[in-house]
Amino acid sequence: MSIRFNVNNEERTLDVDPDTPLLWVLRDELRLTGTKFGCGVAQCGACTVHVNGMPRRACVTPVSSLEGANVTTIEGLEGPQADAVREAWAEYDTPQCGYCQSGQIMSAASLLARNPNPSDEDIDKALAGNICRCATYVRIRKAVKAAGEKLGG
Amino acid sequence: MTIIDAPAPSRRAFLTGAGSLVIAVALPVKSRGQSGEERIFGSGESSPVKYAPNAFVRISPDNTVTILIKHIEFGQGPFTGLATLVADEMDADWSQIRAEHAPANAELYGNIMFGGMQGTGGSTAMAASFDVMRKAGAAAKAMLIAAAAEEWGVPAGEITVSKGVISHAGSGNSGSFGDFAEAAAAQEAPAEPTLKTPDQWIYIGKDVPKLDTGAKSTGAAQFTLDIYREGMLTAVIAHPVKFGASVASFDDKAAREIAGVVDVKKISSGVAIYARNTFAALKARKALEVEWDESGAETRSTNDITQERLDATKNRGAIAGEKGAVDDSSFANTENAIEAEYVFPYLVHAPMEPLDAVVERKEDGGVEVWMGSQIPSMDLGVLSETLGLDPSQITLNTVLAGGSFGRRAQSDAHFAREAAEVFMAAGGETPVKLMWTREDDIQGGYYRPLIVHRMRGAVNDAGDITAWEHVIAGQSFVANTPFEGMLQGGVDATMVEGASVIPYDLPNFNTSVHIINNPVTTLWWRSVGHTHTGYAVETFIDELLEKAGKDPVEGRLALMTDPKHQRLANVLERVSAMAGGVTAPEGRARGVAAVESFRSFVAEIAEVSMENGVPRVHKVWCAVDCGIPVNPEIIKAQMEGGIGYGLSAILFNELTLNDGGAVMQSNFHDYRSLRISEMPDVEVEIIASNAPPTGVGEPGTPPIGPAVANAVRRLSGATPRILPMIKSLQA
Questions:
Q1: Is residue B441 part of a domain?
Q2: Which of A15, A137, A139, A145 to substitute to test the interface with B, most B CBs within 10 Å?
Q3: Under an 8 A CB cutoff, do A124 and B400 touch?
Q4: Which of B7, B206, B453, B511 has the fewest beta carbons under 10 Å from its own?
């Protein structure tokens, strides 16, 4: 089956098994490897991307559901929220192993786009779907707040 | 200590290419132990390796300085930490510093605390590298200066180096490291480079931006799973769900019909499916039908295994530590005695990136492997055996790994073996990526062992603890591995560390252990024995002190009479000062614990309330003494992470087997991880120290469990002694 959608502002037409999760299309077909596999069942958030601007778990999103959609991955994440998050991530040296961080940043940028002045509770709620086994959570919380401040929230 | 210019020409070419400088340093091996390994490697005299040459610094004409890191980076910080040591001695500018993994070569990159074996573990990276890396940096700087002196025709002693710029004030000459990379490579390495005194340090003890943060914030950081080779197949394996089971037969008809599936092969650990893409491989695994031979399998439940071990603890085991006299009469006055049974379940490490490897045939007939190799010496040995190649024909690349927590430190190199078998079973010519899914990870064994403890303690009317008996039972994962030396006289050092010696001076003390093995595979898990001994010792002393009417902090301090426990006493005092004591606001309670592990000293106070029968940890204060704090922010981050990792386990985690022996959990929905909403605020202070640096990857973990448990006891009246806590509290 042929499917057409946009990935990081580039139109892509792919001929793949329609059941294929977006995660494996991004990685195996498009070599966008910043989006990670962690669980395959939407429990860990390592595969978080944006679909039409909203966070989505790529591991349980069949590519057939994305006809005409706009997908943004960590490689294509840009704009004021992305800049502020990455700057804050550097300020707090947030990542440890780094494997979950693409997903954390995708969720954080999405939160800040909706709410530039999040409380700890807002942050906990928005990022509770993103597991970090290194437990960088203390720094994630501080960095998201700092990013919000940079955005003038 | 001798320093020689060691690399052979081929090695130099491999490491650098033309125009680069490699500094090689050879150091006498002085083996020290972590997590019991000193028993096998002993002191320097008995070490199998007398000299372990190391090559660490590469300066390129483009003025970047790349530090070769002999320890795997999976979040604990060796890229930045070890590079800090070199950059400081070189007087490099931090912006020119890069880091990459050193190749597998124990001769150059052996761990002096692992008897020369190349590997990471026991929180040894900094301790084992502090002198070596600084000497490498100092030697590199001396060679750059010598090259500049020759070029400018001025005395080397008049040349200064600052922030990566080499200058001679008298002649007005200056140049970059890159300008002199080639000329410096031709210089002789100094036999005894002069190291800076601590007051001259520019990066050590201060914070530098971590070298890997940028790439880990853009998706650019490359992990093993991200490696794609031309024509590569992706393989997944159908593994048995019972330990000790093997493949009896399989039907792959339906699996082979799935588009993209290329092959199905039996290997020793299961049935491998090869496909052109990951989804096809996963789909085919579901369609595969396998009959398992369970004749040699563990078919008991974890309840049965637990009971067997608890029964064993009713008798004393092999003695691990003793003082004075302890027998039943010591606890005869039951009014003044406490007896406790503790159950510590199997725990999965569950690093974010499940195990994976890429294997490819090289043009010269050798094989190249990419994986998060934590003990390259072990992995290389097993790859060599399985591939039928000499180690020199194998290129083993260590890749950034998405966590480990012990999972990648495989004493049997089982994953390297599986990857090599998968590659060979497919013909040994096509590149193959082997990936485990989360289900493979959760159900694949190599767990923190299921361990039980029985403790008895007695307090007299004066409030003194008069007797302490501690019996531990569980399985040993060092038997039949190169680490077997940790097992002596029936005592596995990794099972009793933290219990065979405790910081409290008690007149009568006895700790013993029963080793009862079974087919469930086990392994070290972040802080190893201290995961359970720290919990048992620190909750039990807290209860005895309460019975004795003593304050938990003052009571502990009064028992830390031996000067060797002074640093632990210091962190305990510090954490108490940070938190303002152990009195909590209404509705909450505080608990304290202090544990020495891996030669670092950590005390924590947790403030806890109960919400729907589950402890909620609001705040943790943590004081750490790890010697000279090379990278303070990394130390703090490791304490924060170690606390979160430990909290996840003690609150929620257990891996159980049902009646029949099948693993009952499969993914993060039923083996849940701590989430950000459950993470307490953490405040860390580091004790100023001039002592040699020690590790921080593990030591943050042991105190959090008992600190929370001691708080829970004050709230609920009982110590949760069956872990995870949700099991005790909701039972």
A1: no
A2: A137
A3: no
A4: B206
For residue B266, give the CATH number of its domain.
3.30.365.10
Order of strands across the sheet that contains B600-611:
B589-597, B600-611, B614-625, B681-686
- Cβ count within 10 A of residue B296: 12
Q: Specify whether B370 is located in the same domain as B341.
A: no
- Residue B118 and residue B25 in one domain: yes
Q: Which domain holds residue B186?
A: 12-218
Among B71, B206, B208, B216, which would you mutate to test the A interface (most chain A Cβ atoms within 10 Å of its Cβ)?
B216
The size of chain B, in residues, is 731
Confidence of residue A111 (pLDDT cuts 50, 70, 90): very high
Nearest beta carbon to residue B219 from set A74, A97, A124: A74
Q: What is the DSSP letter of B196?
A: P
List chain B residues with pLDDT less than 50.
1-54
Separation in Å, CA of A152 to nearest CA in chain B: 22
pLDDT digits (tens, 9 = 90+) for B694-722: 999 999 999 999 999 999 999 999 999 99
* Torsion B16-B18-B23-B25 (CA) sign: positive
State the best of A134, A139, A142, A144 to mutate against chain B, taking most chain B CBs within 10 Å.
A134
CA distances (Å), origin B518, targets B138, B304, B442, B476, B605: 51, 12, 18, 9, 37
Closest CA to B470 of B340, B371, B378, B559: B340
> Is residue B7 a part of any domain in this protein?
no
- Give chain B positions within 8 Å (CB) of A102: 219
Task: Tell me, yes or no, whether B592 and B702 share the same domain.
Answer: yes
> Which of B218, B278, B677 is the closest to A128 by Cβ?
B677
HSE-CB of B460 using CA atoms within 13 angstroms: 9
Looking at residues A5-15, what average pLDDT do you find?
Answer: 97
Closest by CA position to B59, among listed B108, B16, B30, B102:
B16
ipTM tops 0.85 = yes
Strands (E), B506-558: 509-515
DSSP B407: T
- Burial (Cβ within 10 Å: 0-12, 13-18, ≥19) of residue B389: middle
Query: Is B486 within a domain?
Result: yes
Residues near B95 by Cβ (< 8 Å), separated by ≥ 6? Answer: none
**Residues B285/B238, Cβ–Cβ less than 8 Å:** yes
- Return the number of CB contacts < 8 Å for A and B: 190
Q: What is the pLDDT of residues B20-78, one digit of tens each?
A: 344 433 333 333 333 433 332 222 333 332 222 238 999 998 999 999 999 999 999 99
Contact check, Cβ <8 Å, B677/A125: yes
Say if residue B179 is in the same domain as residue B243.
no
